[in-house]
Amino acid sequence: QVHLVESGGGLVKPGGSLRLSCGASGFTFTDYYMSWIRQTPGKGLEWVSYISNYYTYINYADSVKGRFTISRDNAQNSVYLQMNSLRAEDTAVYFCARVVGSGSQKGTFDYWGPGTLVTVSS
Amino acid sequence: DIQMTQSPSSVSASVGDRVTITCRASQGISNWLAWYQQKPGKAPNLLIYAASSLQSGVPSRFSGSGSGTDFTLTIDSLQPEDFATYYCQQANSFPPGPFGGGTKVEIK
Question: Is B91 at the interface with chain A, CB within 8 A?
């Protein structure tokens, strides 16, 4: 079955960097866009970034544009989020999610990882 | 940018009650709307897509309706495992999202 698992979260000082990883299994990785979504403690969900199957399309939320970089390694069935110039407001649980790219489920996040916590604090 | 507004932000209900949650898009999105359920400490789980289609494995007491800008999620005969937070999400355009602010269904 589909399985996504994030890693790389932790405590980092403001201005620091962190790289999140998401390993995928149970489906043909190159058939899907992948996305990162975050959730601040006690708050709602915020889409962060997505990347298309073969890197053609990449997009970021305005709140992270210029600081975060999404990438993927189709040979390793993995997607990454490089986070630089981190701020306190980036503190959140970061989820990796599979994006359905076509059909009636287009644009939905049909599978999610359990999430990894990023804390930005001095 | 499309904005999604959910109401109410929380609702208290008893087991067996019918619960209705609404979601409004700032512009028309046809039927490109999804609903998710999230339990504490867990990732969200896709319940409904295309406004009214039930994701595989989701109980039939969940239903969705609406088109354009106004949408509804209904839970018939609320069960103990349904106490959670529910989010809507527009799927009309890329990038996917944003999400509504969430509705917490609490035990009365």
Answer: yes
